[in-house]
Write a structure and sequence with these properties.
Strand content: 15-25%
Shape: elongated
Distance between the termini: 52 Å
Number of helices: 26
Strand order of the largest sheet: 14-26-25-24-15-22-23
Number of strands: 26
Length: about 750
């Protein structure tokens, strides 16, 4: 049995400050486009987690000669570096490792050119303008309502027009553009009646002011703009964190490879690597291509792709895949697939397909608008036609009635029904340690009947712990600790940590040497001692995660000792599974790990339905099969091997410690290490779904009462705007009951 895989870069301690994960994306100001005089390098920082990391990483990067600037994006856990062409990624990775930060190069060409929340800032700016104008126009309206007449009334109306008309034109842009886009394709979206209401209210008011009329409704127009923008901004904020997981996966591909040409190592872009080329991969490096080992021996960490917690031995003729990590020795590969043909890129394509399927899910509000918008227009035009006939052609009166109907039926409450609930529920879940990223995630979460868990790094911490230290004499542990200290292997480090915690100091072992793919050996009291694979130490492997110590004592019973390890459960894992089962949900465990480890975990948690050795594509296929069988699946996972399944599931959750690609493929992020809030999430989601339905009921009841009043001419456009505002406030207050 070999030493286990190193801790994957996605298995890092959860952030101590939830804001590090929850904050909206910020632009990498220093990440300038590469030019003839410099280069842009982008690195993933999986262990960066708080504000102190920013200054430490930036200072370390800027201390490298040739680096002009460095900027950390903590939300994305990346650092962008603007440097001279001679600054290599290896130098930067080494510099960051020197201050304790693991770094992996990303391909900047495959990342978004900008990640700023421009749409959010734009909506917020328009919302502020609408609020400022609304308050000022309302103050002027009070003077008119108080009895201002003739020239004074007309003056106040013209001042209101000077404030309101530019405001409606500016603040209403999101609705006007959306309405025009709908009309161009022959569809009546929710923004069409909204735009008509804004235009009609403003036009009638301007006409009345020009004619010296007693009534103008500029206050109604700006009030409409404000409440509609508030709903639109709330809706936008629920979606602002989501990014493309397929893009993130593609950026994880190694952008360069060391190719052997005529025996000389040459660093070339991955696009220039061809099938049949020889590629050299050094220890600690990620495989840039799919290939077959032709020279060298090492161990491979496949946990990123398959979820296997133990590494596998790699020697001549071993098949390797892009994305796997070479652990201990240099390898030479013959390329079988590179770039877009690699297994890693094919996985990115799987995620892209699954994500596009998920985006076809529309919110309840969008579905309701399908019948609501045509009905609003029919009522408004019917009222206009009836009153034109009834009054003998009084255009002013008929238009006022038509505008009042449009305003009073304006889908502001309908537009707020979902965002208000989602915002309230998101705040409640955030306080419990869950971040909602997708606007429809709560609605989908309420429909879940099956929960699928990954094992390593999700139900477990992904970190081995020594389990049988007390079974070994102190002298054997001292020797094992001395050998383990010479290796960076996670099992070796776990052994060192266990010995240190027990107060055991390493023995004096000389001539220490790490043998790639096998373990560490040295001389102790003149005898050769080894720590590593079972066969290397001269014994049969146990059916457990273990490393073996050979003390060179021949056939003595205790000449070879096995140090066993177990992956510790994530806090709250047992409580989360118990809570889900108590709610009547079917719980499934799908893992790429070995059958023994998965069986043990399923038994510990009481999960009857489990599968081991599941590859990434198979995991996504399992989720899709459940979906096709009519089940609504919640997928909980953290690794690159889980991203396709996360995207394919009805709704998905990943820990904040997960790989970036898994985090962005999911709809909800678990901010802390405790998994117990997952059970609360489903309960709150069902409550939120009930509140959304209640809000639709409130909106419908309001229309049943208010629309007839508008149709018979008993509601002016201003009264209609006030009634519309009251319904919006009622919907918002009902949503706040979730808190």
């Amino acid at each position: 049995m070999t030493l286990a895989a190193p801790l994957r870069e996605e298995h890092v301690p959860a952030s101590a400050c939830p804001a590090c994960v929850a904050a909206p994306s910020a632009e990498n100001i220093a990440a300038m486009a590469a030019g003839a005089q410099g280069a842009r390098l982008v690195f993933s920082l999986p262990t960066a987690h708080c504000a102190a990391c920013i200054s430490t990483v930036e200072q370390a990067a800027q201390a490298v000669p040739g680096v002009r600037s460095a900027r950390v994006n903590l939300t994305l856990r990346r650092v962008s570096v603007d440097a001279d062409p001679d600054v290599t990624p290896e130098r930067m990775i080494a510099a960051l490792a020197g201050v304790g930060y693991e770094a992996h190069e990303l391909d900047p060409g495959l990342l978004s050119a900008t990640e700023t929340d421009r749409q959010g800032r734009d909506l917020l700016m328009r919302l502020g303008v609408a609020f400022f104008s609304m308050m000022n126009v309302m103050l002027l309206s009070v003077a008119v309502w108080s009895g201002a007449e003739d020239a004074t009334r007309d003056l106040f109306h013209w001042i209101s027009a000077a404030i309101a008309l530019p405001t409606v034109i500016f603040a209403g842009q999101p609705f006007f553009k959306s309405a025009w886009a709908s009309l161009r394709v022959g569809r009546l979206g929710m923004d069409v009646p909204i735009s008509l209401a804004l235009i009609l209210a403003s036009s009638i008011s301007l006409f009345e002011t020009w004619k010296g009329g007693h009534h103008a409704y500029f206050d109604a127009a700006v009030m409409l703009s404000f409440f509609l923008l508030a709903g639109r901004y709330l809706d936008h904020r629920t979606r602002a964190v989501a990014r493309s997981a397929a893009e993130e996966l593609a950026a994880l591909e190694v952008p360069r490879a060391v190719v052997l040409r005529d025996g000389v190592e040459t660093v070339v872009p991955i696009a220039e690597v061809a099938v049949g080329d020889l590629v050299r991969v050094r220890p600690g490096g990620r495989m840039p291509v799919d290939g077959v080992v032709v020279a060298g021996q090492s161990e491979l960490d496949r946990s990123l792709l398959t979820g296997e917690s133990l590494p596998v031995f790699a020697g001549p003729d071993t098949v390797v895949s892009a994305g796997e990590v070479n652990l201990t020795g240099p390898l030479t590969l013959r390329v079988t697939a590179a770039g877009r043909e690699s297994s890693l890129h094919r996985m990115a394509d799987l995620v892209a397909v699954a994500e596009s399927a998920k985006t076809r899910y529309t919110s309840l509000a969008e579905r309701a608008s399908g019948w609501y918008s045509p009905l609003v227009h029919i009522l408004s035009f019917s009222a206009f036609g009836f009153w034109m006939w009834k009054t003998g052609g009084d255009l002013r009166f008929a238009v006022n009635i038509s505008a009042a109907v449009l305003i009073i039926t304006c889908p502001c409450a309908l537009g707020l029904a979902v965002p208000a609930v989602v915002t309230a529920a998101s705040g409640k879940l955030f306080r419990k340690g869950l971040l909602i990223k997708h606007g429809t995630a709560l609605e989908r979460l309420a429909e879940v009947d099956t929960v699928v868990f990954d094992k390593t790094g999700t139900l477990t911490m992904g970190a081995p712990q020594l389990t049988n230290l007390a079974d070994h004499p102190r002298a054997a542990v001292e020797v094992a600790a001395a050998l383990a200290a010479a290796s960076s292997h996670p099992l070796a480090q776990a052994l060192v940590a266990g010995a240190r915690a027990a107060g055991i100091h390493p023995a004096r072992v000389e001539a220490l040497r790490e043998v790639p793919g096998y373990g560490v050996e040295g001389l102790w009291k003149g005898r050769r001692v080894r720590l590593g694979r079972a066969e290397w130490c001269g014994t049969e492997p146990l059916d457990a995660t273990a490393t073996y110590l050979s003390t060179g004592e021949g056939t003595a019973p205790d000449a070879i000792r096995a140090f066993t390890f177990a992956d510790s459960l994530r806090p709250g894992a047992a409580e989360a599974v118990a809570s889900l089962r108590a709610q009547g949900l079917n719980v499934v465990l799908l893992s790429g790990d070995a059958q023994g480890a998965v069986w043990d975990m399923a038994a510990r948690l009481g999960i009857a339905d489990w599968k081991a050795g599941v590859l990434p594509a198979e995991k996504a296929a399992e989720v899709q099969a459940m979906t096709q069988a009519g089940r609504r699946v919640l997928m909980v996972g953290d690794g690159l091997n889980d991203t396709a399944a996360l995207a394919a599931a009805h709704v998905s959750i990943s820990p904040a410690s997960a790989l970036d690609a898994a985090r962005v493929a999911s709809d909800i992020v678990l901010l802390g290490q405790d998994m117990a809030p997952i059970g609360d999430a489903l309960r709150i989601a069902r409550q939120a779904s009930r509140r959304i339905v209640e809000n639709f009921g409130i909106s419908a009841a309001y229309n049943v009462v208010a629309v007839p009043l508008a149709l018979v001419g008993m509601a002016t456009p201003l009264a209609a705007a006030a009634a519309m505002s009251l319904s919006s406030i009622t919907v918002s207050l009902n949503a706040l009951r979730l808190r």
